[in-house]
Amino acid sequence: MHPVSMRERIDHATFRLHAQLEKLEHMYARLHQRDTELFQRCVGAQVSNDFAHAKIYANECAEMRKIAKVVLGSQLAIEKVILRLETVEEFGSIVAQMAPVMSIVKETKSKIAGVVPQVASELDEVNNLLGDLATETGEVTSTELPIEPTTDEAKKVLEETGLIAEEKLRDHFPELPSFDTPTSHAVEQIAETATPGTSGLDGDIDGHVYRYAREHDGQLSIHSCADDLGTSPEEVRNALQRLRDNGKVVIE
Question: Which CATH number do you get for residue 209?
């Protein structure tokens, strides 16, 4: 095969992988947005002591995050495949470079099939294209290539992307509440993300809580708010109830 023709076909495979990567990035962004909405509803339900609905929202968040992990792991795997294809001609034989690449693509296709079938179908097409390319170089005599993820390199890549996906999920998504006891509030779970500070009260706790909520874009952690204002969580919770009863805030 002429080198230019081979490069063009590799570029075509890379272009198609970039297209699927973009689809997964958009899906991950939508999942993150939806999780944020559900988490805020979970917080609001717990502030209102509506633990039945809080648990429903928390379970939905958990399911959303399972899908997000698959999507993010697939993104990372495809990114590694793209990087490999961009240098595949420069080092070693085409088959030696292509086999682990095809292993990663096939495994990624299997994982994403139940989440985004369209992307899985496209990855299957890309794998066929790569298989044909390796065969047509004349470096193999059979169309049956070792495309199962059995090589140490392919396994290592898939393990790494899984670990990175888990780490990124912890960074992107707040910890879900536990419902073992009625005192486990979702708002307490996000207290670690609040910026500590000090504030004195002058008797107008409702006003202080209202201003605190506005300063934090409406996402309020009861325990962090209490610590920052120098009062008790119960006082903050009561203030929120009064603000809601007076129509100044809406708790979702």
Answer: 1.10.10
Hey, what are 173's tokens? Answer: 């998504």
Contacts of 27 (CB under 8 A, 6+ apart): 71, 116
Place of tokens 């230019």: 4
- Average predicted confidence (pLDDT) for the chain: 75
In a domain, 14, yes or no: yes
State the pTM of this model. 0.61
The answer as to whether 31 is a domain residue is yes
Q: Rounded to whole angstroms, how far apart are CA atoms 204 and 218?
A: 19
CB contact at 8 A, 168 and 156 = no
Amino acid letter, residue 248: K
Tally of domains within the chain = 2
Which range of residues forms the domain containing residue 213?
Answer: 190-245
Task: Check whether residue 163 and residue 217 sit in a common domain.
Answer: no
Q: Are residues 231 and 121 in the same domain?
A: no
Q: What is the mean pLDDT of residues 135-152?
A: 49
DSSP string computed for the chain: --HHHHHHHHHHHHHHHHHHHHHHHHHHHHHHHHHHHHHHHHHHHHHTT-HHHHHHHHHHHHHHHHHHHHHHHHHHHHHHHHHHHHTTTTSS-HHHHHHHHHHHHHHHHHHHTTT-HHHHHHHHHHHHHHHHHHHHTTS-S-S----SS-SHHHHHHHHHHHHHHHHHHHHHSPPPPP-SSTT--HHHHTGGGSPP------S-HHHHHHHHHHHTTT---HHHHHHHHTS-HHHHHHHHHHHHHTTS----
Residue 64 phi, psi dihedral angles, 5° rounding: -60, -40
Span 186-215, pLDDT tens digits: 333 333 333 333 344 555 788 888 888 877
